[in-house]
What we know:
The chain is α+β, with helices and mostly antiparallel strands. The chain has helices at 3-7, 20-41, 43-55, 205-218; strands at residues 154-157, 180-187, 193-200, 220-222, 224-225, 231-232, 234-241.
Amino acid sequence: xxxxxxxxxxxxxKPFYKRPGAMALAAVVQVAVLAxxxxxxxPEFTAKATNAVLATFSVTxxxxxxxxxxxxxxxxxxxxxxxxxxxxxxxxxAEKPKIAIAQTPAPRASSSGSADSSGARDTGSGTGAxxxxxxTGSGTGxxGQGGGAxxxxxxxxxxxxxxxxxxxxxxxxxxxxxxxxxxxLTVTPDGRASGCRVYKSxxxxxxxxxxxxxxxxxxxxxxATNAAGxxxxxxFYWQQKFFF
Length: 244
């Protein structure tokens, strides 16, 4: 039997220590079993060992600097055209008007005269604006007392306040209470009422007529006067209110 044949076993297989692949696999399995056993018994030790191994490796990543953008170059301006010629307006000659316009001279100012009172006409020799007059007013005086009264007539005495002077109207005296009559009395220069008319009725004609008669008989007045102070005839309005 040769030496090669001696290395094989009885079944023709090589011994385990002569197969390197099998030996490596066995070593890995043993290490894994040992690691599991150590991790189970001392987990903190495994974590510290792992961190220690990772701490030995430091990786630095450097970011390349960004290149600056190139500055934009302004676009060259286009060429301009030639300067244009200046426009010169054509001379236009104004035509003469066919119809001649008459020039009216301006009027002379009224203040250019040498007289004391300037104006369009000469002043007269009088002392007034249009000549002096010989009268003392706008007209000659007459012999009358004047055109009308200047002061009004004034009631000075007499009253109408007696219920017995009036008859009882239909419906009783209450039908007359609160009513009033206005009379227009003609007052003469002697201060009496010579005439009477009903200016506004009380609604009771008989009462109105009695009031007129009593006014002429009882009422006395200071007559109205004109501008010269003379007494004149005038109209006096009398209102009689009834409380009875």
